[in-house]
Amino acid sequence: MSTQQQQQQDGHIIMFPFMSHGHFTRFIALAKFISRRKPNTKITIVSTPLNVKHLQSTLQTSETNSNIGLAEIPFSSTDHGLPPNSESLDSLPPKLIPTFFYALETLKPSFDNFILETIRTEKLVPSCIIFDLFLGWVTDTAKRVGTFSFCFLDAAYGASMYFSICLHFPHRTNDDSNELIEEFHVPEFPDTCRLHLSQLIPMLRYSNKESAFGKFAQRQISLMLKSDGMLCNSVEEIDVVGLEILRNLMESKRVWTIGPLLPSYLLHGHQNKNNGSVVSHFRKEKEFGISPESCIEWLNHQKPSSVLYISFGSQFTISAPKMMELALGLEKSGKNFIWVLRPPSGFDSKSEFKSEWLPEGFVERMNETKKGLLVKKWAPQLEILCHRSTGVFLSHCGWNSVLESLSQGVPIIGWPLFAEQHYNSKMIQEEMGVCMELARGDEGELCSEDVKKVIEQVMDGSIGQDMKNKATVIAEKIGTAMREYTDEAGIRRELISAKCNVWIKVITTT
């Protein structure tokens, strides 16, 4: 059988990620995960031109199989009232995010044309389409051409909480009133599960069933729930509550945990905390503010579990006043730290970081005392979390970062900023006991004494030791899941025994 015939025999998977860095990262990880098990299955990641250009660069600098390809569909941001070349959520200010969401629905005709042209050219219907949050209309495309559709999510807990809030809007007295309930129960969840308004982003907080975003969210969720199944980048043993609720929402449809989609060396890092001998090339495309080697060298001189790592992800950041208080609190705590610095919210995220955003003389004092390593733009996060000297992660609680941290048994100080980060923070604090929340976005006041107190509790106190112990147990569970899905016999046993024959045929090693 020729290579081309074999590829046709093994099928074609179409992937359509939401247009944002974190979403691209996990879709690429999933593509590589499938590629390693089904090297003769064609995989195509679809996006808009500028994103395809970025993804091409990423794939070229990463070790990957040749069966992963890219395809672009047209998108003009200015047609939707967005700035020129705004093809990713990462490049937009918060006020334009709803506009970006609504614009994504206009991609449907182009995506439909791409699928139809693919079928015409290959004379074969794709094996399945794997799509992302906010792209629920893909289910209609899949049904029309006679293939399967699967929605790819992060934690089931965060997804099911978002679904429930948008389907019920439980924080409002009714649709005709502007009254908001400050603390409320989330339908579908246990009676003890309550949310505060500060855990809802403004876009959702001020929406109801009749608002533009409310209608958009309910429309997309209803379509996602019609998919043939949901794939969660999570682990069955740590996402118990969320999975139960998501499975109830999906009724007879299947929900699979296929995570954690992490580099395999993270497992070895937890089993044998290294001194930086493993330096990954997982994110070669990033312009690091410090070389991984220099960062590891600094960590090698610190005591075990003595370093606080601080990063708020690739998309959002904290305000200038809170950045000032965080710096003062760090200095008061006396702890060693690595802090990834980006301009405060309200400033151009691509501009140079200015020392005036930090306390006077702070940078000079850190350089002199070597207590803090200040890194601009990007830091080698995976290597930092693998290192024995890293004790705690002050994080925005994006799911990728949560998995990376917990896979190493590193507890978290939570500072969620946007979207499901608030739900992730709630989950790992209340359900897992491995997080203590310091702040929420720009809500409320924060002083340096608050920062100092929380850091000391997590890094020195009995509360912190309990968090560390629980994080270590979770790391073992994540490690077990990673061993299961990297085993030559196939991926997780639940997935192998599932009834979705097409998904098993495409994904598992036969």
Automatic annotation (TrEMBL):
The keyword Flavoprotein does not apply. It is an enzyme of class 2 (transferase). Gene3D superfamilies: Glycogen Phosphorylase B. Keywords: Glycosyltransferase, Transferase. Signal peptide: none annotated. It holds the Pfam family UDPGT. Its EC number is 2.4.1.-. GO terms for molecular function: UDP-glucosyltransferase activity. PROSITE patterns: UDPGT. CDD domains: GT1_Gtf-like. Belongs to the UDP-glycosyltransferase family. This is Glycosyltransferase. It comes from Papaver somniferum. The lineage of its organism: Eukaryota, Viridiplantae, Streptophyta, Embryophyta, Tracheophyta.
